[in-house]
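#onboarding

Welcome to the new folks! Below is a worked example of what a typical request in this channel looks like: someone posts a single protein sequence, and someone else replies with the predicted structure as tokens. Don't worry about understanding the tokens yet, we'll cover that in week two.

Example request:
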Amino acid sequence: MRFISLFLLFSAICFHAHAVRLPAVINSNMVLQRDMQIPIWGWGDAGEKVSVHFAGQKKETTAGKNGEWMVKLDKLQANALPTILTIKGKNEIKLENVLVGEVWICSGQSNMEWSVARCANPKEEIAAANFPKIRLFNVPGHTTHPLPQREGKGSWQVCSPQTISGFSATGYYFGRRIHKTLNVPVGLIGSNWGGTRIEPWTTLDGFKSVPELSKLAESVAAYNSKTKVKGSTPSAIYNSMVHPLTPYAMRGAIWYQGESNGNEGITYYQKKHALVKGWRKAFQNPDLGFYWVQLCNFRKPNVVEIKDSKKEESRPEGGDGWAKLREAQTQALDLKHSGMAVIIDLADTHNPNDIHPKNKQDVGGRLAQWALNQTYDKKHMVASGPLYFGHEIKGNKIHVSFKNVGQGLMVGKKVGLDPTQAVKGNLKHFSIAGDDKKWHWADAKIVGDKVVLSSKNVKTPVAARYAFTMNPADANLYNIEGLPAGPFRTDNW
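Example response:
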């Protein structure tokens, strides 16, 4: 009798060892992406028959020689009613409380990782976070691997005051606005690591897609299972913290990173292309929306002492600190289905050395503005603040034109979480130069949808700059919708 019991126990252990199982991201409480084919995948015995049942659909497949299997559900409409998804093999798995709506991954370094509990108005925001149709999946820990991994960790949670405090503030405020505006369920996947560069988040295929990064591609391609990697190693974070999520169906990604690459210019543009193209291939979605945050104003303004005076004034030429990195972030908008939230007005003016500005409500909101305009085709909403479009030199003046003017241009002031206010006064932080390449602060005036620049020190101007410095704290050009203009320069000196 004892022998029979042991035999049955052993058989049960063996049976469950080979039972159908799923990746962490496919689980109860998840949100499935509407209006797309939905991959559902996992592992079992080689040759095992597997079926997936959901919303009246039944999809069947057979596990391959390596035990891997995948089916794709047909496109689904948004559904806020909790539904059960069933997977049957030699065993049966029932996933409960599954919704259908919009899914986004929220990724980057510490400013994306910064939690609701550590940002502005934490008590009020946490207490109000009762959104059962928003679901949260956080990739735990900080991990690396030399090769792409199929299995990761994490679980889906229903958004509530009990679950929101440790989640990405930027991600949550983005998702909350999407949810409120579209009135559909929203799934948010957080995968972040403070202090990281862009290279560890980028795929091998992404590096291969950019000729200027061929050496990086060759390096990553040479990895094997014994290659030692760390948080700064190209592709190592992607392999461990993003690849296990693929190819989960999702609408897009929001990205807040760049501080750790802050001394770069055109090379960051190349790496941004590699990141986006690589993720789009990995998630099997060439139209994956990709919206990033341009770096905030940081540290004290770049100043020079005035002769025979104890006063200081900002340098009109700028070009210091993150100026070229922000420029690269702007240039990467040539990627289709992309956008950039400008936040050079959100740093704490009383603590300019804080690299983690607490106002993530506006950061998430401005990212959502792009997604609503572009991904969700709400064209009545302007995508962002004014972005440089072109310029024309007329005599001693430069006429600058912009995209995303919205209802018009204005001089504005943003204080804390309050909406931007139109104020009286002059536009600041525009500069112009002549052939001598010497920069002078410009007299800047709004004329219709353009800004007209001039300076008594520049008779024949050839170039203009705006907010092209590490901390353009007094930059104050906005559209009437209250969104700030992006930094730019017309020269390449």
